[in-house]
Amino acid sequence: MNMSGQTNQPPLLEVRDLSLSFNQQEQLAVDRVSLSITQGSTLGLVGASGAGKSSIARAILQLVKPDSGDILFKGKEIHRMNPQELKMCRQRIQLVFQEPSASLSPRRTVEQTLLEPLQHFAIGDSNFRYEKALHVLDTVGLDQSAMQRYPHQFSSGQQQRIAIARALITDPELLIADEAVASLDVSIQAQILQLIQVLQKDFGFTFLFISHDLAVIRQIADDVAVMYQGQLLEHSSADRFFSGPAHPYSKTLLSFAQGKTPTHRPGDKRYLERSRRKAINSSACLFAGFCPEKMQVCEQVEPAIHAIQNKNQDALEPHCVKCHLYSEVNTYEF
Amino acid sequence: MTTPALNVKNLTVRIDTEGRRLTLVDNISFSINAGSATGLVGESGCGKTMTAMAILGLLPESGVSVRCDGIEVNGKDISRLNTAQRRSVLGRDISMIFQQPATALDPVFTIGQQIAGVVRRHIGGSKQHIRQTMLAALDSVGFSQTEDIAAAYPHQLSGGMRQLAMIAMATVCKPAVIIADEPTTALDSSTRTLILQQLKSLQTLQQTAMLFISHDLNVVRQVCGEVMVMYCGRLVESTDCQNLFSHARHPYSAGLLSCIPQISTTRPAPVTSIPGQVPAATELPPGCHFSPRCNRTEAQCRISVPKPHDEDGRGAACFNPL
Lengths: 334, 322
Fold this sequence. Notes:
Strand order of the largest sheet of chain A: 6-7-8-3-9-10-13-11
Strand content of chain B: 15-25%
Largest sheet of chain A: 8 strands, mixed
Shape of chain B: globular
Number of strands of chain A: 14
Number of strands of chain B: 12
Mean pLDDT of chain B: 90
Structural class of chain A: alpha/beta
Low-confidence stretches of chain B: none
Radius of gyration of chain A: 21 Å
Largest interface: A-B, 42 and 45 residues
Oligomer: heterodimer
Helix content of chain A: 25-40%
Strand order of the largest sheet of chain B: 7-8-9-3-10-11-12
Distance between the termini of chain A: 24 Å
Shape of chain A: globular
Order of helices and strands of chain A: EEEHEEHEHHHHEHEHEEHHHEEEE
C-alpha cells in the first residue's frame, strides 16, 4: 500500500519551506519544513511535544498565517486562494482533534454537530443532510439513538467517533488527525485505530496523522516524518524508518519508544533539562547538544537536507535526512 | 515469612448516588513486599484510582463507604486512623505520585518550598538540615542543577521535570510504600522512558513497595514484577508480569494485550480490540462482569462470580481460562 515510490503522481498536499512563528518570538515554531503526501497514503508526523507538529496542521488549514513558504493542495497554493476558494478547500480538508470532549460543543446535540458542516458548505437539502448524518454515524459505529444526545452522554471513545463522523461528513480528501488517540485508553485506542483504517479504505481519504507515539504511527502510516524543535529531520517510508532510521534523533526516538534508553547517549539529565534554542540563526544543528554521533562541524554549520539511498532498498523511495553524517555519502548501511 | 510492606485485605468501596448504592471496588485483596513493584492495570473507570484513594483514606466521607479488613503498612493498620493520625502517616510511610503534576503541585510555592514543607512536617530538624534533605531529594531523581530547580515555580518546569519534582517530593521521606497513579500518562514517550527509569531505580534503591497504576501494559512491563488486571472493580487476574505477557489466562487480560500496538520492522497486522465497551457502574451484568464481551462465555459465567484460580488470590478469576 506504500505509494511514496510512485513519483509520477503529484502529491495531494505539498508543503514547501514553511516557516511559522508566534508573537514575534525569535524561535520559529516551524522552521523551513518541506513535506508531501501522496494521494491515498498516510503520513505519520512524529516528534516530542513542542516540536511544531500541530502548528503545521494549523498552517495547512490557514488557521494561522505562515511567515513564509508555500502550501499546495492539489497543486494550488492555499494562501493565495480567495475566501471563496479557501472555503471550498476547507471542505476538502478536515481535522480531528486530540481531546474529543473539548472539540465537541457541549450545547449541541450530535445531530446539530453533524449537520453544521453540511449547512455551512450548503451541501444538499435538509433530507439529504439528515440521511447523510445517519449514514456517517453508522459508519463510525454509532446508532440512530445517538442523534438527539449531547456529548457528555457519551464515553470518550464514542465522543472521538462523533468527532471523526463530523470530519468525514463533508467527504474530505485530506483528513488531519492531531494526536487523535493520545488521550484514549489502550483498548479504546485500538478500537479507534481499527475504525480509522477501515474508514480510510472505504472513503479513500489521504491522511496526515500527527502523534508522539511511534507504536501508533507504525500501525497506521505509510510514510514517516520526524520533527525536532520546529525542523524536519527525517522523511522516509515507514518500512524503512522502522527497520533503521538514519538520523541520530530518530534513532533515539525509536529506542525510547521501544522502552530502551539509548546506551550510547550521554547526559540523560541534560536531555530533560534542555531548553529551546535561543536564536534563529545560531548556525548549528539543533540536535548537536544531545547527539551521540556529534562531529565538530555539527556545532558550526547547520546541515542541509540530503536525499540518501539505502543499499538494501528500492532506489525509487525518497529518503531525506537533515544531518552532516550523510552529507558526503549518499548510501548507508544499518 | 516477612511482613509485606503493603497488605490490603478485602477492600470494598461503594458510593451512594441517586438513591442507589454502586460498588466501584469489589472485595479486592493483595500485598506488596518491600522492594517490589506491582502494576494495577485496567481501563478508565474500572476502579484503579478509587483503590488508590481508598488505601490512602482520601475519599470523602459523605456518600462513600469504604469497607475492609485492614490496610497494613509494614504491619500497621492505617484504615482506621483519624484525620490527625492520617496526616502523620501520609507522605512519611505511604505517599502518592499523581497523574497530573501540573495540578498536584501548588503554583504559588517554589518546588523547594513544597518539598521542604514535607521534610519539615515529617522529619524536622534545623533549617539547614531541611534544605540539605530537600536538595538531596532533587539530586536523587537526577536533577543536576538542584539549586535552580528548588528556586523554580512549577510553571517554569517542563512536564517531565515537574513529574521528577513530584517524585522527589513523594520519596523524600523514604516511605515504605509509594502509590503511583498513571505517573507518565501525560508525557511523551521519550520523557516517559526516562521518568520510569528514574522512578524504578529510586524505588529499588530505597527498597520501597510500589503500587503502579496504569492503563498501559507496556509501561507496567517496564517497571513491575507483578501485575493485577482490574475490570469493573474486581481483580480478574494477578500474576507475574512476564507470565501475563507470555501466557495471559483471563480473556480480558488477553484482550488488553492484543490492543497494544507494537513496533516492528515489517508493518504489523492491525491491532485487534475488545468488542463492546465497559458497562456503566449502574448497569453491571450479573455473574462475571466481563461475560457479555467475552467470547468464551459459558452458562455459569452469567450466573456466578468466578473465584481467583489460586488460594492466595493469584491466577485468573475465570471459569473458562485460556
